[in-house]
UniProtKB/TrEMBL annotation, chain A:
Location of the Acyl-CoA thioester hydrolase/bile acid-CoA amino acid N-acetyltransferase domain: 20-150
Organism per entry: Gouania willdenowi (Blunt-snouted clingfish)
Family statement drawn from the similarity comment of this UniProt entry: Belongs to the C/M/P thioester hydrolase family.
Gene Ontology molecular function: fatty acyl-CoA hydrolase activity
InterPro entries in alphabetical order: AB_hydrolase_fold, Acyl-CoA_thioEstase_long-chain, BAAT_C, Thio_Ohase/aa_AcTrfase, Thio_Ohase/BAAT_N
GO BP field: acyl-CoA metabolic process; fatty acid metabolic process
Residue ranges of domain BAAT/Acyl-CoA thioester hydrolase C-terminal in the record: 216-424
Active-site residues, Swiss-Prot/TrEMBL: 242, 334, 369
Listed Pfam families: BAAT_C, Bile_Hydr_Trans
Name the UniProt record assigns to this protein: Acyl-coenzyme A thioesterase 4-like
Amino acid sequence: MDRTQCCVQLSVQPSRALVDERFVILVEKAPPGFQLSVRALHQCEDGHSWEAFGHYISDATGTVNVSQDLSLGGTYSGVEAMGLLCSLRPVPGSKPGLRMRKKDVQAPMMVTISVYQGHQVEGFVDQVPLASVVVERWYVAPGVRRIPITDHGLTGTLFLPPGPGPFPAVLDLWGGGGQLVEYRAALLASHGFAALALDYLTAKVIRETGKMVEDQYFETAYKELQKHPQIVSSRIAMIGLSFGTTMTLKMAIYSKVVKLRCAVCISGSHVQPIEKSVEEILSSFNDRADKTRINEENQVIWRDLLLPIPTDPSLKADVGSLQCPLLLVVGEDDQNWPTKESAEDIQEMMERAGNSHLLTVLSYPDTGHLIEPPYSSHTRTSNFKPVGTNQKVTVLWGGQMAAHARAQEDAWKKMLAFLRENLYGGRKASAATQSNL
Amino acid sequence: MFKAWMPVRKILHFTDVKMISYLHVRHHLAGLQPPAGKNIATLPVCRSSSSVKQAPLLTAAPVRALIDDQISITARFLPPSSPVTVCTRMHSEDGDLWEAFAHYNTDTSGTVNLTSDPSAGGSYLGCEPMGLFWGLQPAPGGREGLRLRKRNVQTPYVVRISLLEGHVSPCMRDISELAAVTTERWYMAPGVRRSDIRQNGVVGSLFLPPGPGPYPALLDLWGMGGGLVEYRSALLASRGYASLSVAYIGHKDLPPPQNRLNVGDEYFKAAFKLLQDHCEVDADRIGIFGLSFGVFLSLRIATQLGLNPSCLILVNGPVGSTVALPDMEDHFLTFEKSQEYWTYDKQGNVIFKDVSLPSNIAPERKAKVENINCPVMYIVGEDDLSSSSKENADVIEETLRSAGKSQLFTRLSYPGAGHLIEPPYSPNARVSFWSIKPEKLMTVWGGHPAPHAAAQEDAWKKVLKFMESHLRR
């Protein structure tokens, strides 16, 4: 092996981090002006391999700093410190339509980062890298406790931060795919919030009775949080993505039981028939299925189902009567829900009602539907089976990788600040001030 | 000779301004158990029934760190200008409880930041971002003569950081724990590979960085305390160097008896060659890291065995030996034979310093320093009571100067630092057990907490840079 090449040094700091923490990748002691590829490889829990790579040229000192230098090509380009994670994609030959989602949040995501000679696009697996390191990416901080919640017919998982508490809490809802998705709640607990991830579409009680849950299900979850000795009953928030937004607004505005300190609605809409059950709301969406669009790649676009935004007040949640701060996170390229149009209408409704001081909108160009914790691989399309159907389709979620990745990072930071300010700060609930965000 | 200890603990500070003495109280700590994976010491939570006040927010970053990484600790959403105590607690592998604490005052926004705020008292004074780690001491009421050393480097130290109300000390009763976080401190980065070495008679542990190599390497030698000490090698591998820690006394796999030095030149040559011959090691880039008696061994390997290390890192050790190596003479000597040079402090603890005074070492047992051909970094703890480090550094420096090789020599000298200059942010043991048979004997290593900690931090940075220069160019 060439003497100079064997001296190439690679460091990734930190080597153990939470998934929302940045790392710095440094390649050193390469020959100056040397072409090299930096590659990430991850095998996820279902056995699929994902990779990402960037093409670099070392500077006069033989150094590449991924946080500062341009990737000239690969799965990402430009200056992207976290590009190797954001652009992870299934290796060639994988099943189409995959999406990376962590199931076991108590084990880390292991990523191997390597340096190869030259600007390679394939065949990494057959080569010996010049250098290689392993990093661990964690959804939980040490000491976070995971508690399955099965009482009172609930299907959920509670994550508690370490320490005596009592803690403010967040009820965490995902969208129309159902299942019990834990990773965001686990991460929130790693930041000091008790968090209850709740399955409300494929919960045990639904599978057993064949019936969708009612408002009472969410109210029971809320009351379970209130009752918990390590949770402050007056400091509970809700965070919902996609259909989870529909449920969050429903509870925040109409429930007599649920009194939120604040709410975060990601990639969702306020359009819903009011005072209706969950089942009826889902039906009302299904009734508009004829507005589904299929593009040339056979990908399903559902954003038109709720368009145009109705003017009839009985068809949208009355955001004008909201009494707690609301943070909306909008991907302007959301192809799944009309998030942008909904946000505009929400803004208008709240201005008319005089409570727009409670509203903060984070709107991101070229950002799609799946606005997830930062540095997770961007999924523009994937296979999807909506609850209550047997069809698996390929859905277009939207978003351009670099912009979407930046949006995830920025939104997460601001979401945490919003939650901290409203759940940890002040005696009175207050809208996040611009200076804090 | 050996007096019983009074069960009173003192926390001594570098400036010796404050002394806080504890009563000898038993700990009634809820949930306190010897470590079994993830058990962490918890404090008695004594909250009045009326206080359902929300917890403030305590954060530590990173929560999983390498031993030589700094951890930032902040507390927010506390009342403004209020007294708080931040404390750390952890269990050693033997089940002993170690703790540290410091007193802070929140600013006008109700925040404390240990990276920038000064401690007003406790285990350390002033602004010490890592004071809660290097200031760890055995908890009052625990066993005496302890030294914190990680045996299993594949698991982390789990340290609980707590925020307490007021300026208190952790062992008091009726204290209110406001918040807590858990941190892990690792000697090994992910992907580092550890293997047992029992080859060619060599007893050691090899640590390899992740990746294909080849890597620059270190032979890692400790002192007469014996055994196989892995943590420095694990950390070096985590920083990109293959590292072989070698046992030479006090290990069951070495030729018996354990209290004698039964291996000599051939043994150390075999160890060095093991690295040279390893397919993942760059044979032209091997250095030697020696502490205490390991310094003499490093010098001998570099000058007597026909080997060419790329550099030597020497910490607080002698240029020669009062103990004969088997290859040197026919008869063997144990370390105990050097007793004529042992002295004792008022508590009856043994001080070994004079054993390694150059004037007490026979000339034929001194390494031929003039034959060194590689850069040498010598680290002196000026309060070293176990070894005459300064005097030995002087001899090495003078010998090299006379041989026209002064450009090879670098000295780092640290006032207030003791013998055990180890990787940073670990507590120093000023005194600890040397042996328990035939009778309990404790030895004085020297060093005061704050300057010793500063020395460890600074020395490690400089050692890494030194290795960078001489093992990677």
